[in-house]
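for the recovery benchmark. tokens below, seq after
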């Protein structure tokens, strides 16, 4: 099945390559991408058309993503994109526009693909072991809103979940009581 996807990707992109600047991963890198857990997180091919001001990226799951070239701005160090020198490097994880300008493909995905952004944010929240992240997971598991912790305000709960504040003893007791846990159990969620 992975080889079929590889052949489809090779054929599909050769059919749509009409833009002045195009790039495709080599077969070995393509095979690595289609075997990845989330192949759509990698760029396997792309084309830049400066006339229409867009870059089209084919992802490892064969979906496409279009990004306006205006998204690729000069870096603080002064590196400017050179769109006619487009390359895909790092096995599809990085886009280059010239020697000095790179963009992480996951950042491009984050800006332009809502499903990707939701999945990545969910994974981050799940893996985050900070006290605030644990509080948030526990609150959601209990089906509670941030407004369900009277006399604490919604903003107080939000700040705690975002790690902006640490709870005082009295605040911790209110939260733990409402969540029906011992205060020391919150970090285990």
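predicted aa per position
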């Amino acid at each position: 099945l992975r080889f079929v996807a590889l052949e489809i990707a090779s054929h599909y992109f050769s059919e749509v390559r009409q833009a002045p600047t195009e790039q495709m991963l080599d077969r070995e890198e393509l095979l690595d991408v289609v075997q990845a857990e989330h192949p759509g997180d990698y760029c396997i091919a792309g084309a830049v058309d400066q006339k229409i001001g867009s870059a089209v990226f084919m992802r490892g799951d064969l979906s496409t993503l279009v990004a306006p070239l205006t998204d690729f701005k000069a870096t603080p160090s002064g590196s400017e994109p050179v769109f006619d020198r487009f390359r895909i490097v790092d096995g599809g994880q990085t886009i280059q526009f010239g020697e000095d300008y790179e963009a992480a493909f996951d950042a491009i995905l984050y800006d332009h693909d809502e499903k990707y952004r939701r999945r990545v944010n969910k994974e981050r929240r799940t893996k985050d072991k900070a006290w605030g992240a644990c509080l948030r997971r526990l609150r959601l598991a209990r089906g509670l809103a941030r407004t369900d912790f009277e006399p604490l305000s919604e903003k107080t709960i939000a700040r705690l979940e975002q790690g902006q504040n640490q709870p005082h003893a009295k605040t911790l007791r209110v939260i733990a009581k409402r969540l029906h846990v011992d205060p020391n159990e919150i970090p285990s969620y």
